[in-house]
Amino acid sequence: MLAAAMKTACEDCGMDMVRHWNLSGTDFVWLDTDGRSVGGTSPIPGVTTISELLVYLLKHDRIALYSDLSARFPSGLGVLPWEHRHRPAPTSPHIPAAMVPECCVMPMQLVRDGWRCRIAHTVFQHDSASLPVPA
Fold first, then answer.
1. Are residues 58 and 68 in the same domain?
2. Which of 25, 43, 62, 83 could form a disulfide with 112, with the two C-beta atoms 3.0–4.6 Å apart?
3. Is the pLDDT of residue 56 over 50?
4. Which residue range is the domain that position 3 belongs to?
5. Does residue 14 sit in the same domain as residue 36?
6. CB count, 10 Å around CB of 57?
7. Does 77 lie in the same domain as 67?
8. 10 pLDDT band (50/70/90 cuts)?
9. Residue-wise DSSP of 37-82
Protein backbone atom coordinates (compact mmCIF):
# COMPACT_ATOMS: atom_id res chain seq x y z
CA MET A 1 0.00 0.00 0.00
CA LEU A 2 1.23 3.49 -0.79
CA ALA A 3 2.02 5.72 2.15
CA ALA A 4 -0.08 8.82 2.66
CA ALA A 5 0.36 11.80 4.94
CA MET A 6 -1.53 10.92 8.11
CA LYS A 7 -0.97 14.12 10.11
CA THR A 8 -1.07 17.84 9.51
CA ALA A 9 -2.14 20.95 11.44
CA CYS A 10 -5.09 23.34 11.23
CA GLU A 11 -4.12 26.49 9.34
CA ASP A 12 -6.27 28.63 11.67
CA CYS A 13 -5.34 27.40 15.14
CA GLY A 14 -2.36 25.08 14.62
CA MET A 15 -4.10 22.12 16.30
CA ASP A 16 -2.82 18.71 15.23
CA MET A 17 -5.09 16.95 12.74
CA VAL A 18 -5.24 13.26 11.87
CA ARG A 19 -6.54 11.67 8.68
CA HIS A 20 -9.57 9.34 9.04
CA TRP A 21 -11.44 7.39 6.34
CA ASN A 22 -15.12 8.27 5.95
CA LEU A 23 -17.75 5.61 6.72
CA SER A 24 -18.02 4.42 3.11
CA GLY A 25 -14.24 4.18 2.76
CA THR A 26 -14.21 6.22 -0.45
CA ASP A 27 -12.50 9.31 0.90
CA PHE A 28 -10.95 10.67 4.07
CA VAL A 29 -11.56 13.56 6.41
CA TRP A 30 -9.23 15.49 8.69
CA LEU A 31 -10.22 15.61 12.37
CA ASP A 32 -8.39 17.05 15.34
CA THR A 33 -6.99 14.76 18.01
CA ASP A 34 -10.34 14.93 19.84
CA GLY A 35 -12.15 13.65 16.73
CA ARG A 36 -13.76 17.02 15.92
CA SER A 37 -13.90 18.97 12.67
CA VAL A 38 -14.35 22.30 14.49
CA GLY A 39 -12.06 24.01 16.96
CA GLY A 40 -12.10 26.93 19.34
CA THR A 41 -12.40 27.66 23.03
CA SER A 42 -15.25 29.53 24.65
CA PRO A 43 -14.27 32.93 26.07
CA ILE A 44 -17.26 32.72 28.43
CA PRO A 45 -16.62 30.52 31.50
CA GLY A 46 -19.09 27.64 31.74
CA VAL A 47 -20.50 28.16 28.24
CA THR A 48 -19.54 25.42 25.78
CA THR A 49 -22.78 24.51 23.96
CA ILE A 50 -25.41 26.38 21.99
CA SER A 51 -27.96 25.82 24.76
CA GLU A 52 -25.65 27.32 27.38
CA LEU A 53 -24.87 30.25 25.07
CA LEU A 54 -28.57 30.99 24.48
CA VAL A 55 -29.27 30.96 28.23
CA TYR A 56 -26.28 33.27 28.77
CA LEU A 57 -27.52 35.70 26.08
CA LEU A 58 -31.01 35.81 27.60
CA LYS A 59 -29.63 36.51 31.08
CA HIS A 60 -27.43 39.32 29.74
CA ASP A 61 -30.15 40.93 27.58
CA ARG A 62 -28.49 40.21 24.21
CA ILE A 63 -31.78 39.57 22.38
CA ALA A 64 -30.59 40.40 18.82
CA LEU A 65 -27.72 37.90 19.01
CA TYR A 66 -30.02 35.39 20.73
CA SER A 67 -32.51 35.64 17.83
CA ASP A 68 -29.80 35.32 15.21
CA LEU A 69 -28.20 32.25 16.79
CA SER A 70 -31.48 30.53 17.69
CA ALA A 71 -32.54 30.84 14.02
CA ARG A 72 -29.23 29.62 12.53
CA PHE A 73 -28.43 26.64 14.72
CA PRO A 74 -31.53 24.45 14.26
CA SER A 75 -30.92 24.49 10.51
CA GLY A 76 -27.28 23.51 10.97
CA LEU A 77 -25.96 26.73 9.46
CA GLY A 78 -23.30 27.65 11.93
CA VAL A 79 -20.75 26.98 14.58
CA LEU A 80 -20.51 28.80 17.88
CA PRO A 81 -19.16 32.36 17.49
CA TRP A 82 -15.74 31.44 18.89
CA GLU A 83 -15.44 28.22 16.85
CA HIS A 84 -14.10 27.66 13.35
CA ARG A 85 -14.12 24.75 10.93
CA HIS A 86 -10.63 23.27 10.90
CA ARG A 87 -8.71 23.86 7.67
CA PRO A 88 -5.95 21.27 7.32
CA ALA A 89 -2.63 22.56 6.04
CA PRO A 90 -1.77 21.08 2.65
CA THR A 91 0.27 17.90 2.71
CA SER A 92 2.67 16.82 0.02
CA PRO A 93 1.24 14.56 -2.71
CA HIS A 94 1.75 10.98 -1.64
CA ILE A 95 1.30 9.28 -5.01
CA PRO A 96 3.28 10.33 -8.08
CA ALA A 97 0.95 10.72 -11.08
CA ALA A 98 2.88 8.03 -12.97
CA MET A 99 1.92 5.48 -10.29
CA VAL A 100 -1.86 6.04 -10.48
CA PRO A 101 -3.38 3.15 -12.44
CA GLU A 102 -6.06 3.70 -15.07
CA CYS A 103 -9.29 1.84 -15.73
CA CYS A 104 -11.89 2.68 -18.40
CA VAL A 105 -9.52 5.39 -19.73
CA MET A 106 -9.63 7.33 -16.42
CA PRO A 107 -7.26 7.53 -13.45
CA MET A 108 -8.51 5.29 -10.67
CA GLN A 109 -9.53 6.64 -7.25
CA LEU A 110 -7.50 5.52 -4.23
CA VAL A 111 -9.95 4.32 -1.57
CA ARG A 112 -9.47 2.58 1.76
CA ASP A 113 -9.76 -0.93 0.28
CA GLY A 114 -7.72 -0.43 -2.90
CA TRP A 115 -8.03 1.32 -6.25
CA ARG A 116 -11.59 2.06 -7.44
CA CYS A 117 -12.58 2.40 -11.10
CA ARG A 118 -14.46 5.69 -11.50
CA ILE A 119 -16.67 4.25 -14.27
CA ALA A 120 -17.34 0.60 -13.33
CA HIS A 121 -16.96 1.20 -9.55
CA THR A 122 -14.93 -2.02 -9.26
CA VAL A 123 -12.42 -2.03 -6.39
CA PHE A 124 -9.02 -3.63 -7.00
CA GLN A 125 -6.74 -4.54 -4.09
CA HIS A 126 -3.63 -2.41 -3.57
CA ASP A 127 -1.24 -5.04 -4.94
CA SER A 128 -0.33 -4.43 -8.58
CA ALA A 129 -1.19 -8.01 -9.65
CA SER A 130 -4.93 -7.34 -9.41
CA LEU A 131 -4.93 -4.08 -11.39
CA PRO A 132 -6.35 -4.01 -14.92
CA VAL A 133 -3.80 -4.30 -17.72
CA PRO A 134 -3.60 -1.12 -19.83
CA ALA A 135 -4.88 -1.61 -23.38
1. yes
2. 25
3. yes
4. 1-40+83-94
5. yes
6. 20
7. yes
8. very high
9. SEE---SSTT--SHHHHHHHHHHTT-HHHHHHHHHHTTTT----TT
